Amino acid sequence: MSSYDVAILGGGPAGTALALELRRNEPDLKILIAEADIATDWRIGETLAPGAAQLLNGLGCWDDVMRDGLIEGVRSEAAWGSDRLHAHDFIFSTRGSAWHLDRVRFDETLRAAAEAGGVEIWRGARFLSAVAESETWQLSLDRQGRRVDVEARFVADATGRSARFATSQGSRRCFADRLVGVAAAVHLREDAAADHATLVEACEHGWWYSTVLPGNRLVLAWMSDSDIVHHNSSARLGPWLAQLRAAPLTAARADMAETAERVFTWPARSHCLDQPCGRSWVAVGDAVSSWDPLSSAGIMKALRTGKLGAFVLLDAIRGVEGAGAKYRRLIEAEYRRYRRDRRAVYRMERRWSGSAFWQRRHAAEPFDREPAMHSAGEP
Ligand SMILES: Cc1cc2nc3c(=O)[nH]c(=O)nc-3n(C[C@H](O)[C@H](O)[C@H](O)COP(=O)(O)OP(=O)(O)OC[C@H]3O[C@@H](n4cnc5c(N)ncnc54)[C@H](O)[C@@H]3O)c2cc1C
Question: Residue 91 pLDDT > 60, yes or no?
Answer without folding.
Answer: no
